[in-house]
């Protein structure tokens, strides 16, 4: 067969196949164009799930009449002109492919007006201009109508789902964009019925109301606000407390310079921050915004622009991980909700990474983790009620019953004590307060030259955990010193897996996770056991220690350590006030 050049129509339809998967893809591209035009109002009208009609109207800067027809040609854009512009992208769109791809598989009508020009209109059907540019009455801004999507590609229509399903995809696209564009009003109609309306939000309280309307009030009531900036990076938004974890990753929204992305590096960084506070295979919930210099991130990775590539990926990973971890660590019992479903909200209770402790540090609960007893506290004379209140007794020698200002608390004493000990052991680990043991018989491990090179390049990771590894030949290393907690480990398997991680990703958390697992085992076996009778001073000592311990709301396996029952909830159980 001879080689032939594809026709413009066919090449545009192929391009459309990469960008336009379904009606929701069209909606995404058109809304992004409106945002780039600095619109403050975007209205969407959808008929039959977007197959019959998609109309997007905005009050942006508009398109000059002379540029209307040109805008429908492939690779035409006002957003970049040089290679330098491509490396410094500050808009959501930039390829100049969207309108051409959409017009290749639909009947498109584009109407627009600018401040200095009257409105004009152009119609296209399957990339063929059906009539010349004509005048049209239109306010400043742009309206794009997409009718009969995939009318000339019936095979593509067969892959579409039901009208209800296709509209749900559109609804999700609008939701994702509305989460990141707080200063824009959005309205969404389906079959002439108003489905969504999001008012612009400027203050933090208004933004929280919009997030609550999009992600649910329960999310905002369990959210921690963060805003951290350093070294050209800024992370802001909301992360959910560990107890608001999800069975699926269905409430995770991450934006890079306003662009919604799905990135393995980002997800891994956040997952690691929640590592020892989530139970089982649960997923964290978050709405986060990363601001980074445009030339430090490549958004031209995939036609759908859902993926990005960071120039300094390790720096970004570390920044996100430590920022989220710091906010989670700052959470203490008694911290108030940052959001209320009442109209008037206060932002005084936002959790910040550097918050000051509200209570003095009490006497240590467990001076020596090898001794399985709880230290008593002196009598507390302060009239203020601590966040976890005061113990009033034990239930079956398993749970502590306590009374605080809110009502009744149930505390799993083993899980709570386990977290207190675990965090103390982690602190010792961070301060390098552990014993190092020299091996009488060094462990010899055979690795590939590439793996040995990776270990040599990342010696700092090994030294951080007092693991002394020496290269004795191009294919052999020996382990001479290990921390006490690793002396019973399978060092050969550990080093082989660690070297493999470093070759593949240039980073590894294997050592850290193994040591944390061992610390957790020590904490579990050292903590006070169920069926043990505690005195009231011992119970109160545990409560005070919990109030000054990071992540005390869950044990290191992710199980909750305490549960609050308000007086109103207790009254409801007994039908009081009815």
Please, could you describe this protein's structure?
The chain has 578 residues and is an alpha+beta fold. It folds into 3 domains: 8-196, Heat Shock Protein 90, CATH 3.30.565.10; 204-330, Ribosomal Protein S5, domain 2; 365-578, 2-Layer Sandwich (Ribosomal Protein S8, Chain: A, domain 1). Helices cover 33% and strands 23% of the residues. The protein has 18 helices and 23 strands. The strands form 5 sheets. Strands 1, 2, 3, 4, 5, 6, 7, 8 and 9 form a 9-stranded mixed sheet that branches. It has a 5-stranded mixed sheet with strand order 10-11-14-12-13, with helices on both faces. A 4-stranded antiparallel sheet has the order 17-18-19-23. Helix 12 (413-430) packs across helix 17. The termini are far apart. The relative contact order is 0.09. The model is unreliable at 343-382 (pLDDT under 50).
Annotate the secondary structure layout.
Blueprint lengths: L7 H12 L3 H14 L4 E7 L5 E6 L9 H4 L11 H4 L11 H6 L3 E8 L2 E9 L2 E2 L4 E2 L5 E7 L6 H4 L5 H18 L4 E6 L2 E6 L5 H12 L1 H5 L1 E8 L2 E8 L11 E5 L2 E2 L3 H10 L12 E7 L4 E2 L10 E2 L2 H18 L59 E6 L3 E5 L3 E6 H18 L5 E11 L2 H9 L1 H6 L3 E6 L2 E8 L7 H15 L4 H17 L9 H12 L14 E5 H7 L5
Parallel strand pairs: 1-8, 12-14
Antiparallel strand pairs: 1-2, 2-7, 3-4, 3-7, 4-5, 4-6, 8-9, 10-11, 11-14, 12-13, 15-16, 17-18, 18-19, 19-23, 20-22, 21-22
């Amino acid at each position: 067969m001879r080689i032939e050049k594809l026709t413009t129509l066919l090449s545009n339809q192929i391009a459309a196949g990469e960008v336009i998967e379904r009606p929701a893809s069209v909606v995404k591209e058109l809304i992004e164009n409106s945002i780039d035009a600095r619109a403050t109002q975007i209205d969407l009208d959808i008929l039959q799930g977007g197959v019959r009609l998609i109309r997007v109207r905005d009050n942006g800067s508009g398109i000059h009449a002379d540029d209307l027809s040109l805008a429908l040609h492939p690779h035409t854009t006002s957003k970049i002109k040089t290679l330098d512009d491509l490396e410094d992208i500050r808009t959501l769109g930039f390829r100049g492919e969207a309108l051409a791809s959409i017009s290749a598989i639909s009947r498109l009508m584009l109407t627009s007006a600018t401040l200095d020009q009257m409105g004009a209109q152009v119609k296209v059907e399957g990339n063929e201009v059906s009539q010349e540019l004509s005048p049209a009455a239109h306010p400043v801004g742009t309206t794009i109508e997409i009718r009969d999507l995939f009318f000339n590609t019936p095979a593509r229509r067969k892959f579409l789902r039901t009208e209800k399903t296709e509209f749900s995809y559109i609804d999700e696209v609008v939701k994702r964009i509305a989460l990141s564009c707080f200063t824009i009003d959005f309205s969404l109609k389906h079959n002439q019925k108003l489905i969504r309306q999001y008012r612009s939000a400027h203050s933090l309280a208004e933004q929280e109301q919009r997030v609550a309307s999009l992600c649910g009030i329960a999310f905002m009531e369990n959210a921690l606000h963060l805003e951290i900036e350093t070294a050209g990076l800024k992370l802001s938004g909301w992360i959910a407390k560990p107890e608001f974890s999800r069975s699926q990753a269905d409430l995770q929204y991450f934006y890079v310079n306003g662009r919604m992305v799905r990135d393995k590096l980002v997800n891994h960084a956040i997952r690691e921050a929640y590592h020892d506070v989530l139970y089982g295979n649960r997923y964290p919930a978050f709405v986060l915004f990363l601001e980074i210099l445009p030339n430090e991130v490549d958004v031209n990775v995939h036609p759908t622009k859902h993926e990005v590539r960071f120039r300094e990926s390790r720096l970004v990973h570390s920044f996100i991980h430590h920022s989220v971890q710091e906010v989670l660590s700052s959470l203490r019992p008694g911290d108030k909700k940052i959001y209320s479903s009442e109209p008037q909200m206060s932002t005084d209770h936002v959790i910040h990474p550097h918050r000051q402790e509200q209570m003095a540090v009490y006497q240590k609960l467990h001076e020596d983790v090898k001794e399985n007893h709880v230290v008593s506290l002196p009598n507390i004379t302060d009239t203020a009620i601590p966040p976890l209140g005061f113990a009033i007794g034990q239930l079956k020698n398993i749970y502590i019953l306590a009374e605080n200002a809110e009502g009744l608390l149930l505390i799993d004493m083993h899980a709570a004590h386990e977290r207190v000990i675990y965090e103390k052991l982690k602190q010792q680990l961070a301060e390098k307060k552990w014993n190092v043991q020299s091996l009488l018989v060094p462990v010899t491990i055979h690795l590939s030259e590439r793996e040995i090179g990776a270990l040599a390049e990342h010696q700092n990771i090994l030294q951080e955990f007092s693991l002394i590894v020496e290269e004795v030949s191009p294919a052999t290393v020996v382990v001479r010193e290990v921390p006490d907690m690793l002396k019973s480990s399978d060092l050969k398997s550990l080093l082989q897996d660690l070297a493999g991680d470093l070759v593949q990703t240039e980073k590894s958390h294997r050592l850290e996770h193994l040591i944390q697992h061992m610390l957790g085992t020590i904490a579990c076996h050292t903590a006070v056991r169920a069926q043990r009778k505690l005195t009231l001073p011992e119970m109160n000592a545990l409560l005070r220690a919990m109030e000054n311990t990071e992540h005390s709301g869950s044990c290191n396996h992710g199980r909750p350590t305490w549960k609050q029952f308000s007086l109103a909830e207790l009254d409801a159980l007994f039908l009081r006030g009815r």
